[in-house]
Amino acid sequence: EKGPYKHFMAKETHEQPIVLADAFARYLAPHRSEVHLPEEVDFAGCERIVMVACGTAHYACHVAKYWFESLAGIPVEIDVASEFRYREPPVGPGTLGIFVSQSGETADTLAALRYLKGRGGRSLAVVNVETSTIARESDVALPILAGPEIGVASTKAFTCQLALLACLAILAARQRGAIDGAGEAGRVEELRALPGLMATALTLEPAIAEIARDVSHARDVLFLGRGPMYPLALEGALKLKEISYIHAEGYASGELKHGPIALVDEAVPVIVLAPSDALFDKTVSNMQEVLARGGRALLVSDAAGIEAAGAGAWRTLAMPRAAPLVAPILYAVPAQLLAYHAAVFKGTDVDQPRNLAKSVTVE
Ligand code: F6R
């Protein structure tokens, strides 16, 4: 049940520190700084990974693409399941398909899995429901351990998908000799710090609700991010659309001047997801372009980032400082809470948005 929360989405958002800690207790070795999975996954022999999913699960794949490529050096292709299954992509024994699905029953994702299996690819399912069809039909299935997710908008399943995919990317890097013991230990400790950072981020809820009050009056909202924050921008836009019915779009920051900047005026909030990392200055220069055109930019960064670039912004939100590996998981929290509070201000049905079903078992 919902306990003290008004909606399942709120409850599930607040459960994230606990479920992530549970997942890491399962996927990280207890007394060593190492990834330790209950089932063998072989990345050594794979030529490429294709990651297939729908909606929010697809955005989790999009983040993981950066991790598999940068940590393990494995080429990764991502696709939405409804496209993958019909475009007849070449698949061979060197292809590892990773199918990510909370429910494990999504029709298009299941069809994509069957397509890959039929052409000799190896399959790994990343699911929340362990007894699901996608879990049963995959060569290997790993549970994300998020616990039941009732709210139609995915929250804790997204971050638990990311947590497991990060563990898989570290494991892949080890198997391919792309990371040494010290490197792995460093990444694992970054993951172990995440539940605490998530708890801190959740304490920002009153400030995020204040911002959401203004955002709830907007007709259109843009989300911008670079690198692994780009899929987070897509996820922030999806969350806002689906529960508050405000039109929102996510863009890679560098794409702004290739079209969407034409939308920018004082009525369009632009939400800039920019932790202080190697791409920070680039993202901030895109934010400056928004400000120079009279746009209202919300800078979501850490204290150092806000100190460096917060001056002209419409609003700022100071997140805890996070290692680059975990920042995309942490920044799911403001994306979720912003959408949640915008929806609450608008009075929409948060847990059962119109026209949506929790599990899409038809094409
Ligand atoms: C968005 C959302 C959907 C699902 C998508 C895939 O908040 O929940 O986009 O992520 O329908 O569902 P699963 O993960 O069950 O395959």
UniProtKB/TrEMBL annotation:
Keyword Calcium annotated: no
Residues at the active site: 358
EC main group: transferase
Domain SIS: residue ranges: 37-178, 211-353
GO CC aspect terms: cytosol
UniProt GO MF annotations: carbohydrate derivative binding; glutamine-fructose-6-phosphate transaminase (isomerizing) activity
Example of a GO biological process term: protein N-linked glycosylation
EC number: 2.6.1.16
UniProt entry keywords in alphabetical sequence: Aminotransferase, Cytoplasm, Glutamine amidotransferase, Repeat, Transferase
Localization of this protein: Cytoplasm
Catalytic activity: D-fructose 6-phosphate + L-glutamine = D-glucosamine 6-phosphate + L-glutamate
Keyword Zinc tagged: no
Function: Catalyzes the first step in hexosamine metabolism, converting fructose-6P into glucosamine-6P using glutamine as a nitrogen source.
Complexes and interactors: Homodimer.
Protein name: Glutamine--fructose-6-phosphate aminotransferase [isomerizing]
Organism: Amaricoccus solimangrovi
Taxonomic lineage: Bacteria, Pseudomonadati, Pseudomonadota, Alphaproteobacteria, Rhodobacterales
Name of encoding gene: glmS
Residue numbers of the full-length protein present here: 245 to 607 of 607
